[in-house]
Design a protein that fits this description.
globular, five-stranded parallel beta sheet, Enolase-like, domain 1, alpha/beta, FAD/NAD(P)-binding domain
């Protein structure tokens, strides 16, 4: 038997454990996690908090008991105090008062995920300031929003989580102030021509936007509860609650002094998810991932990437050598009925990887004008100037245009050129699209 110890039992760790337990009978799997629950779909927190779904129970897709049935030795509410990488021993401390223990490994898989970025500003430890990653944090935010004396909510950070929880708070009847140091929302995924559509959407639904404003201080009342947000330019805003959604960084505490790290501190892994220590693998939000669009290692914290890399790590540890095919970072968001999806690089992000790009925009109704139920679609295709290969795509519509991004993801992966897309075989039926499809029209309009 070969023993694999997995530290971290959320998406990547679960995917790896399932892969090992279902396919490799010679594997002994030990799972350790400091949380009391596993498999929480944090991307659904805003849906639950905003009362768009009935409750949170469906956000858990497996349990500790399920892994125990499969034969895993699972330890929840257990913290790893340190790892002896030379002796291949993990030292663990149960948080429920049980005796400390140690476990040796043949292979170690680090799936410790990410940690919320906390701004180091005065007042950061005041009561009423919340993060939103763990299930317990979602419960705390939900409880706060239920209070009658919580009327004004400040959300710090206008990325995906910030925008989603801002919508949730507004749906709960709160006044919402949304802050971001960037000049627009969703800046990591969309160019201004697309993020501005979301900005207008948020304004139309009554959110107060403060983009380009860096929060520099929190002030509190006599009881130590936050009651004011102060920005760098000296403006202050009265609030009853703060939700911090600035972003996440890799949780590298256990291996940062032993393993090779990426620029942002993520564990550097090869195409087999193997770290600089041959006995140690890493997957999910604590590790790097290869971007086909950028043709380089990068860091993209998405649940889909975590699952994919966890499966890959499981097979490689189990003895089936598999190489990662890379990712595009495909993503999407739906706020107050406006849908935005993207994959690959934007015009703004491409220069960070030394890629000179051009782009082609197109906007039209999704279906012929005589169709009653119809919505506008805006599309941008981003391609490398020299090779003309597609490196990114962005779409926006009140219609569900999400499936199109999967095609663009494959096109980026396979280095398809913008010119090949221009004559792509796309069917036409008035129920679905136009005879001059927005996908081919955007490609045809390329320089």
């Amino acid at each position: 038997m070969s023993r694999t110890v997995i530290i971290g039992a959320n998406h990547a760790g679960i995917a790896a454990a399932n892969t090992l337990l279902d396919n490799y009978k010679d594997q002994e799997v030990v799972m350790i996690d400091r949380n009391s629950n596993l498999s929480y779909l944090g991307c659904g927190t805003a849906l639950w908090v905003g009362r768009q779904i009935d409750d949170y129970h469906g956000l858990f897709y497996t349990s500790e008991e399920e892994f125990a049935k499969k034969g895993a030795d699972i330890h929840m509410q257990t913290e790893v105090s340190h790892i002896d990488f030379d002796k291949k021993v993990v030292y663990a401390h149960p948080l429920d008062g049980k005796e400390d223990f140690e476990v040796s490994y043949d292979h170690l898989l680090l799936t410790t995920g990410s940690r919320p970025i906390s701004p180091n500003v005065p007042g950061k430890d005041l009561d009423g300031i919340h993060f939103l990653k763990l299930f317990q944090e979602g419960q705390a935010v939900d409880k706060e929003l239920a209070k009658e004396d919580v009327n004004t909510v400040a959300v710090i950070g206008a990325g995906y989580i910030g925008v989603e929880v801002a919508e949730a708070a507004k749906r709960r009847g709160k006044k919402v102030l949304l802050f971001d140091a960037a000049k627009t929302c969703l800046a990591n995924y969309y160019d201004p021509e697309f993020s501005s559509l979301m900005e207008e959407n948020l304004k139309e639904h009554g959110l107060e936007l403060h983009f380009g404003e860096l929060v520099s201080e929190y002030k509190g009342d006599a009881n130590g509860r936050v009651n004011q947000v102060v920005t760098k330019d000296g403006n202050s805003f009265d609030v009853d609650m703060v939700i911090n959604a600035i972003g996440f960084g890799p949780n590298n505490v256990l291996g940062k002094d032993h393993l090779e790290l990426f620029a942002n501190g993520a564990y550097k892994v090869d195409k087999h998810q193997q770290t600089s220590d041959p006995a140690v693998y890493a997957a999910g939000d604590c590790a790097t991932i290869y971007s086909n669009a950028a043709d380089a290692d990068t860091y993209i914290a998405l649940a889909s990437n975590a699952v994919r890399s966890g499966i890959l790590a499981g097979h490689n540890i189990g003895g089936t050598p598999l190489e990662a095919i890379g990712v595009q970072g495909s993503n999407g968001i739906s706020i107050f009925g406006l849908n935005l999806v993207s994959t690959g690089l934007s015009v703004q992000s491409a220069p960070k990887f030394g890629i000179e790009v051009q782009y082609s925009d197109f906007e039209d109704l999704q279906k012929p004008g005589f169709m009653k139920n119809n919505d506008k679609v805006k599309i941008r295709l981003v391609y490398e100037k020299s090779s003309r290969r597609l490196v990114g795509a962005q779409l926006a519509s009140k219609a569900d245009i999400s499936m199109a991004v999967h095609m663009f993801s494959l096109a980026i992966q396979e280095h398809v050129t913008i010119d090949k897309l221009s004559l792509l075989d796309i069917f036409f039926l008035p129920h679905f699209n136009q005879p001059y499809n927005y996908i081919t029209m955007a490609a045809l309009n390329a320089k």
